[in-house]
Amino acid sequence: MKVLSDLTEAAARLNAADRVLVIGCSGGGKSTLSQTICERLNLPYVSMDRDFYWLPGWIKRARAEERSLIAAKVAEERWLMDGSGQSSFDLRLPRTNLILWVRMPRWLCLWGALSRAVMGYGRTRPEMAEGCPERIDGEFLRYIWNFERMTVPKILAGLAQHGPDVPFLQLKSRGEMRQLLDLLGRPA
User: Fold this and answer.
1) Does residue 151 fall inside a structural domain?
2) Is the residue at 142 inside a domain?
3) 149 in any annotated domain
4) Are 82 and 30 in contact (CB under 8 A)?
5) Residue burial 146-160, b: 16+ Cβ < 10 Å; e: rest
6) One digit per residue, pLDDT tens: the chain, 188 residues?
7) What is the CATH number of the domain that holds 106?
């Protein structure tokens, strides 16, 4: 796997990329980062939750339909996809130019998810499917708490299997996220 550690190099690759994947734990800031990058680089924003996973009322879309929608979207020339679902890595990674992995500490992800739920409770976020108002429950909090132990090994395996040559940058602090955005500059 091609791990990038230099933010200047990562920003240059990001500026040149047509297809970017942003992954990470819920509450870590990946959607906010994704939307800001899309504004600055004029990339179409794709939310896995909004565009593929959920139907109104928090109903999970049928897997075959979900995969068909993902396959059609990844065939497009330009996009930034916000979402960590490893079940579609086989479709997404071969078309991805760069991966940004928002890998914040567990406490920060929990804080982000809890504050987002309190501030937006009952309203639907722009990156969520219509009819799926903000909520929080024990299952979601356990997912965040166990993300590093349960999900990261699956992400690493998926990256190795389906995207071994795709460069990726891990962003481990809000400061690194701000530095990357500063290197990208402002929208034209």
Assistant:
1) no
2) no
3) no
4) yes
5) ebeeebbeebeebbe
6) 789 999 999 999 999 999 999 999 999 999 999 999 999 999 999 999 999 999 999 999 999 999 999 999 999 999 999 999 999 999 999 999 999 999 999 999 999 999 998 988 889 998 999 999 998 899 999 999 999 999 999 999 999 999 999 999 999 999 999 999 999 987 65
7) 3.40.50.300
Which residue is listed with tokens 């481990």?
172
Do the Cβ atoms of 87 and 155 come closer than 8 Å?
no
Q: How far is CA 58 from CA 46, 55, 61, in A?
A: 18, 6, 9
Count: domains in the chain: 1
Domain assignment of residue 119, yes or no: yes
State which residues form the domain around 101: 3-135+165-184
Q: Take residue 97 and report the two structure tokens written for it.
A: 């130019």
Q: Return the residue matching tokens 């879309």.
A: 61
Query: Is the separation of the CB atoms in 57 and 30 below 8 Å?
Result: no
pTM of the model: 0.95
Q: Nearest to residue 62, comparing CAs of 71, 53, 73?
A: 53
